[in-house]
Write a structure and sequence with these properties.
Shape: globular
Number of strands: 21
Largest sheet: 10 strands, mixed
Strand content: 15-25%
Distance between the termini: 13 Å
Radius of gyration: 24 Å
CATH architecture of the largest domain: 3-Layer(aba) Sandwich
Number of helices: 16
Helix content: 25-40%
Length: 533
Amino acid sequence: MSQGRSTPARVLMLGIDAADPALLRAWATDGTLPNVARLLRTGLSGDTQSVEGFFVGSTWPSLYTGVNPARHGLHYLTQLKPGTYETYQPAREAFVKHPPFWSLLSRAGKRVAIIDVPLTKLDPSINGLQIVDWGGHDAVFGYQAWPPDLDVKLPPGGPDGHLCDAYRTGAAEYERFVEHLIHRVESRAELTRNLLRRGDWDLFIQVFSESHCAGHQCWHLHDVLLPTHDAAVAAVTGDPIRRVYQAIDSAIGRILEEAGDGLVLLISAHGMSHWFGACFLLPRILIRLGITVPNPPPPSSVERPYAWRTVARRIWRRLPASLKTRLAPLRQRLSGERLDPLAVKPLGVDAAKSLCFAVQNGLATGGIRLNLKGREPHGLVAPGAEADALCERIVASLLAIVDQKTGQPIVARVRRTADLYQGEHLGDLPDLLVDWNDRTPVGSAHVNGGAAASVTIQSPEIGVMEGTNDFSRTGEHRIGGIFIAAGPGIRPGTMNRTISNLDLAPTIARVLGVELPGVDGRPILELESAVLP
């Protein structure tokens, strides 16, 4: 151990993944979260913003690389394979095409510990230790550790294992889920404390993913004003979001007991609120507009062996939402389906014959890919004026669609990705980003009898279209987050500007005496005054 060190970590960064910043502040004020309150009182805090258009799938990769999605190439965990009309999982290949800032710190001789940072790949060259997917929300790699003989206990088992997304049909299932998350938080705190005690870390990062899981699955039990709110279940579980946040706050307090006098950073890189939008309708909207071509029906010789599946799907779509809720677990077992939003799914349309087509980009912002000549295998749209005209048409058509129930536009705005970002991997991203209007909450067919799960939209071009959200989530991401910095040299207060997530990597590196070359983020000047042991 280096001589003169008075703390286990010079920089300790703790993440509360996808926690709502407004709730963190409110519950810190009313005494629910005393340790967050203490950091707010003694530290410098401010709002953060994730990457526009890609804050569902690209928040953490953009944060830990310090570059925008057009430079690191990851916008979602299922993407269109360049040069094809096929989808694939980037995690199975290069994944993020820019190094994390801790790898650069490691090469500069800094000793780092990286614990369960979401969507990170194991780096066997790291100077220190790394743990991947110990208990993450999106465990795309499975548990891995470096060095391989690292003695780490896996998180406690439970009814759902690591799978946050699942059909839950009653108070007992939700209560088991919440207790499992809380137990995992407690185990995570002990893991972090034990590894911190090894000391001599220049940088130590650990992220609580349990807030992410609770937000997606339990928002309808937190927000009593939602049409999806299930008072009967909430009478048993209480507010799961509050309970999980309290567990994390208590864990933070125990971890801070080990932290010494280094710089402490607490962040929520993006937020959470009610589920919204109609991303599940986007492919059908583009077909109705005549710019996406549906797949032809299969030949009868192929269709016949699978006719029962076709009939079953048609019957399922016509069932009342309340009956879908009760039958969902049985349907999942019989069909062998795995409730996995990250599963690789085909585009589901004849992309080669389409002017454009929808691609997966998360549920808060839809993605549309142009079938460009010279980029796609069978491109139909010429870059330049022809592509510009098609984009203008798509924007106008989407903005004209309204929710039949409220009369409000279903789409808040549509933007071209190239107007937001530039980089060598721009071609890996969708060309258009569809931000859904979040003023009208949308439910799930599997929650509280399917309340508010069906959406009916209309416009002069598409006529009337109806669809039902069959996914299990009732909470969805928001772009805003929060950071708190506390420690010697940091003046307490609140910043009067919003910080980009891209600024955190170069800031931490500079505090540790390393400059990150070629990043898009800029060091936060107010944190350069930190005095490190």
